[in-house]
Amino acid sequence: MAPSLIAVAALVLDGGMWLIESARLQIAADAAANGAGYLLLDSSLQSESASAQTSAFQSVALAEATGAAGTLIGNLTTPIGINVASGWTSVTVTLSSQANSFLAGAVGMSGPTLVATATAGLAPVSACVLALNTSAADAIDVNNMGSVKATGCGIVADSTSSSAIYLNSGTISGQEIEAVGGFSKSNSGSNTVSPTNPTTGASAVANPYASLSPPVAGACDYTNASFTAWQSTPYSFTQAKNVFCGNTTIGGNSTTDTFAPGVYYVVNGNLVFNNADITQAQGVTFVLSGSSPGAFQWTNYSNTYQLSAPTSGATAGILVWQECPTSGSAPANTMAGGSTLQISGAFYAPCGALQMSNNAQLTTASGGSMSVIVNTISAVGSAGISAASDTGASGGASRPHLTQ
After folding, report:
1. Residue 318 near residue 309, CB atoms below 8 Å
2. What is the dihedral of CA 185, 189, 192, 195, to 10 degrees?
3. In contact, 296 and 372? CB cutoff 8 Å
4. Model's pTM, two decimal places?
């Protein structure tokens, strides 16, 4: 029985190695497809012969794959299989290798042929964190343990400044990190960047809401109102009275607040949530409008609150909409304090900044998506933004992505 036991042991031990080699071969195929995919950006190559295209792809794929060659992925077979889709829209890389045989070779068994396939295609950059200012330095500023994260989408600064995105002792991570200008960071050991080499000199991403106009506010229902006095029942805001003129303050002194679905307007004034206990705000949009729109100001020091935008109508997908003033820039929108605001929808301020500080967190509600599309962005003092697709902006230059 000894030969049989040796053969079984060889299959078990070598089989584990073959699984590892197979996984690493797939990683190599993904890297090869990603590298080859960048040639899709050069439309001039479409006029070349198929053999020239194949040769170009092979050279890039080999460069990507050789770092994982040898015993890590077995004996790599060359030439690498390359298939370019019609219309120059995608490239598929197929890698194969003869798995290494260790103990199995001692009993006359050879390793299997491993195969891994990956496809890369072009897709527009989807930015769920987008700073629209075209010239500002530090248009996206992440400082002092702040963070800006994007899940399934990108972080983009349209600024041409050499420091369009600036990082100092913080975290920036997304599917892509891109700047029309440059990316700069301090020498802080606390910096985290993913991907590690942001794209600079990128094409600008267009404002996805530029063609939209919010509905027009009606007559004032309240003027310079403050909803902060203690009471046993919540302030229940409805569409029957939804126009607030001048500075409006909500929250404080143990009040709770509910908002029926619909659009709420603040005309020529700030909308201030100060220790507001919001227990209901689903399907709502807060529109800061007028010739001199005010700012959205959130200062809560504890708890987690959930708000969501409408899914239909003129403000579909937008939770906070700060309009541009008749002239000049809009005031900065601010969030401070230790609370977490979970939203589904967009925070949209094309002419105003979003300034996060003092541990405030703006995150994506469970099961939803969230985007921040504003003039400039800052996250400092352990404050953070955690956006997620698919409410993001599209329309910039295409980039290669793995599709399979």
Report:
1. yes
2. 70
3. no
4. 0.74
Strand-pairing partners, residue 354, are 333, 377
- Which value, to the nearest 10 degrees, does the dihedral of the CA atoms of residues 211, 215, 220, 222 take? -90
Of the chain, the end-to-end C-alpha distance in Å amounts to: 45
Q: How confident is the model at residue 302 (pLDDT cuts 50, 70, 90)?
A: confident
In whole angstroms, what is the distance from residue 393 CA to residue 208 CA?
Answer: 5
pLDDT digits (tens, 9 = 90+) for 259-290: 999 999 999 999 999 989 999 999 999 999 99
User: What are the tokens at 395?
Assistant: 């329309």
Give the Cα separation of 54 and 135 in Å (integer).
41
Burial of residue 111 (CB within 10 Å: 0-12, 13-18, 19+) is buried
User: What is the SS3 string spanning 86-133?
Assistant: CCCCEEEEEEEEECCCCHHHHCCCCCCEEEEEEEEEEEEEEEEEEECC
Look up residue 123 and give its two tokens: 């897709």
**Beta strands 192-194; 226-227: pairing state:** unpaired
Measure the CA–CA gap between 352 and 348, rounded to whole angstroms. 9
Residue 284 vs residues 268, 310, 392: alpha-carbon distances, Å? 19, 6, 19
CA 78, distance to chain mean position in Å, is 37
Burial grade of 381 (CB within 10 A; 0-12, 13-18, 19 or more): middle
Closest by CA to 374, choosing from 332, 328, 327, 312, is: 332
Structure-token pair, residue 98: 């003869």
Please give the pLDDT value at position 4: 57
Q: Reduce the DSSP state of residue 235 to 3 states and report it.
A: strand
Tokens of 113: 């042929």
DSSP 334-395: EEESS-EEEEEEEEEETTS-EEE-TT-EEEEPTT--EEEEES-EEEETT-EEEEETTS-EEE
Whether the link from the prior residue into 79 is cis, omega within 30° of 0, is yes
List helix spans (H) across 221-323: none
- Closest to 91 (Cα-Cα) out of 99, 82, 101: 82
Confidence check: pLDDT of 39 > 80: no
Read off the pLDDT of residues 64-109 as tens digits, 9 standing for 90 and up: 555 444 445 667 666 666 677 666 677 787 878 887 776 655 556 6
